[in-house]
Every structure is written in C-alpha cells, then in structure tokens.
Amino acid sequence: MSLLRKTTALGVMTVLVAAASPAVAGAITTHGGAPIIITAANDVQGMCTLNSVAVQGDTYYGITAGHCLAPEEFGAAPVEITTANGELLADADDLSDSGYVLDGSANFLDPNAGLNDFAWFRLDESVTPDATGISSQADTGIALLDPLLTGERLETGDPVPVTQDLVGSLVCKDGAKTGRTCGPVLSVNTESQEIFAAIPAIAGDSGSPLYTIGDDGKAHIVGVLSNGSPVLFNVFDGTSSHLASVGA
C-alpha cells in the first residue's frame, strides 16, 4: 500500500529544517526526500517520503505527511518505520513519541477549506540522519525516466513562510517515487498555509519536501506533500504553522 491521499487536487507537503548532523560511515542514515516504509500492527504496509529531519535538544525527529502515520489509513496503529532496504528508523517505542494532525479538505476547487496534514516521529538512536540535506532517487518503474528524475543532494536553508510572493515562482519537490519534479506555484492561502502548485507526484511521494532555491543556493522548504494525481494541481501544507508541534 503506497500512501497518497485521494482528493480532487494534488499534493501537500510540510518541512522542517534542522541543525547539521554529519553522517557516520556505516551508520543508518536518512534525509529529506528518502523513502520510508510504515508497518502497522496488522502487518499492513505503506510507503511515504521523509520530508525533513527536525531536532529537539539531542533528539532527532522524522517529518512526513499526517496521513502517513494515521491509524485509519492502515486499519491499525503504525508500529515500525524502516528505510526502503529494511533498516530500522523507528520502532514501537520510538513511535510512542510521535504525533500527527490530519483534518481539512482544501483542494484547487475549494482552496479556502483549509488543510492540516503533518506528522512527526522520533528517529531511533541507531540512526544518524543528514538533517540538512534533500535528495531523491526516482523509482517510477520506467528505466529510461528514473535517471532523469534523480535529485542530487541539496543543502537546506531556513524555512520560507507561505506568502503571496510565492505565486508564480518555481518550486520543486523530492519524492520516493517520482524523484525531483518542479513546477509553478499557482496560488496560496496565507491564512491556512496551503500552497497550490503544478508538480507531478504519485502514490509514495506523500510527505515530500516542497522547496524553493534561494539566492544562497540552498533549498528552503515551504511545505509537505499530502495528496494528488500525477499531472494536475498539488496542494502543500505549509511548514511554519506546525513547527511548534515537535518543539523545533
């Protein structure tokens, strides 16, 4: 089961940027744009994308879309999160220190409906994440296409607030399935912090970081992918309104 909420609009993303954490050779690591496999207590599994890594004190948290951790999506509560290779990112104890928000139905036909789709989970102590990097490896199943969508590592900067200045600008997302795809911001809702953009995404990309490239050359995250379809409008849930949830 690959997770991407089904609505008449496309995706939503939320992002947190944290202090740098150099990866240790041989250690389990993860980063924004990496695939995560969620397993529920009933053995149902789903794929999402890690949006980013947040830091609270000495503890690292993985950020993704809220529906990726919602028990109603699986029929049972999530009990484990791993990398695509099966390496542990969070066990049941780690997931006891997690949370999610999931409400609203904003889409391009009803942009004022509001939307919250954001989740966080404690990364296991065995994980040494790249907390300031975004990269992706496309896995569309189309051999000739995947190399073109591979996203090389980008250094992240501070989050960018959702403002009207984003409208018309080029933004990109890095997802576990479609890799790095870009497109224009069509509109924003500054009150409820949604971003509407035309960016390809498919199931498994949920949670992907949405970002702009600043004058400093860094990726500045503005949202988290929630739902959508391959080529239509995408809805992204803005980051800043959720940062306090994990104390970052």
From TrEMBL:
<protein>
    <recommendedName>
        <fullName>Peptidase S1 domain-containing protein</fullName>
    </recommendedName>
</protein>
<dbReference type="GO" id="GO:0006508">
    <property type="term" value="P:proteolysis"/>
</dbReference>
<dbReference type="InterPro" id="IPR018114">
    <property type="entry name" value="TRYPSIN_HIS"/>
</dbReference>
<keyword id="KW-0732">Signal</keyword>
<dbReference type="GO" id="GO:0004252">
    <property type="term" value="F:serine-type endopeptidase activity"/>
</dbReference>
<dbReference type="InterPro" id="IPR009003">
    <property type="entry name" value="Peptidase_S1_PA"/>
</dbReference>
<dbReference type="InterPro" id="IPR043504">
    <property type="entry name" value="Peptidase_S1_PA_chymotrypsin"/>
</dbReference>
<feature type="signal peptide">
    <location>
        <begin position="1"/>
        <end position="25"/>
    </location>
</feature>
